[in-house]
Amino acid sequence: MKKIDIHTHIMPEKIPNWFQKFGYGEFIHLEHHKPCCARMIKGDKVFREVEENCWDAGVRMKEMDQTDVTVQVLSTIPVLFNYWAKPEHGLETARFFNDHMATCVDLHPERFMAIGTVPMQDMDMAIREMERCVKELKMPGLEIGSNINGKNLSDPVFHPFWEAAEELGCALFVHPWEMMGENDMMKYWLPWLVGMPAETARAIASMIFGGIFTKYPKLRVAFAHGGGSFPFTIGRIEHGFNVRPDLCAIDNPTNPREYLGKFWIDALVHDPKALEYVVDVMGHDKVCMGSDYPFPLGEHVPGKLIESMDFSNDLKEALLWNNAMQWLGKH
Predict the structure, then answer these.
(1) Which residues is 9 bridged to in the sheet?
(2) Is residue 99 part of a domain?
(3) Number of domains composing the chain
(4) What is the domain-level CATH number for residue 71?
(5) What 3-state DSSP class applies to 117?
(6) Which of residues 34 and 69 earns the better pLDDT score?
(7) What SS3 state is found at 222?
(8) Percentage of the chain surpassing pLDDT 70?
(9) Residues 6+ positions from 186 with CB-CB distance below 8 Å
């Protein structure tokens, strides 16, 4: 069966030192201190070490062949969103990353698709770059964060963005970042283990309660990491909506459960019972293979969990390929 991985991250091998150029912030650049490996420098401090599969398309394709992945959907690493930067600097960095991903696709169109990044701190610039990604770079969509500098995705400031995405047919992939409470739980890697699932649930619930899926019904939105904790708390969310509509239903009178099946999630849950559950709850046609390649928290053999399940071949084919193509508008 063909496999498309909707959740993979890439960065250029050489990134300008924007920290020096702009004179502030935590812009990332790479320090290639030894072969096949580099340090990500955040501002002027070491952030993490990455390997060549983070930037080298040849290495990626070799590893894709080893795990039978047909196509990767490339997206930037959330630490490169730069939403905190001055808008014009956010636009400059986004364009740089988008041009790099577009080049990867141009060189290897059978193996890669790409979804762009935009400066969400400025709606005019974000929409303009979205239009460039879709119309000029021929990208099927964008990746955005689960909140924008602390603002939930339901905030009215983002309505023009949703409207433009709907009009352009631009698919959206929402990835957690800037996890709430992060500074209170740095020990044990909890921001990644606990904060990220909560962030994704925050994004989904915000869009539901804010009426985004009602106002813009043609939006095609997918959420990372199996929808985070949302699928497992939908009962609680619905119950809260029913017992305290004065708090929950202030912007949207529709029961949250009615939105199941209206958006996609990736299948990155690392547990067979969890996968069975999310496929059942979220919809057989709304779960897509996504591995978080090339990072440690990802599925190291993309699609292995799906392939191991006692699912019909038709369902496996949907999860490994067809659902993703629907989300991307490529069906």
Answers:
(1) 75
(2) yes
(3) 1
(4) 3.20.20.140
(5) coil
(6) 69
(7) strand
(8) 100
(9) none
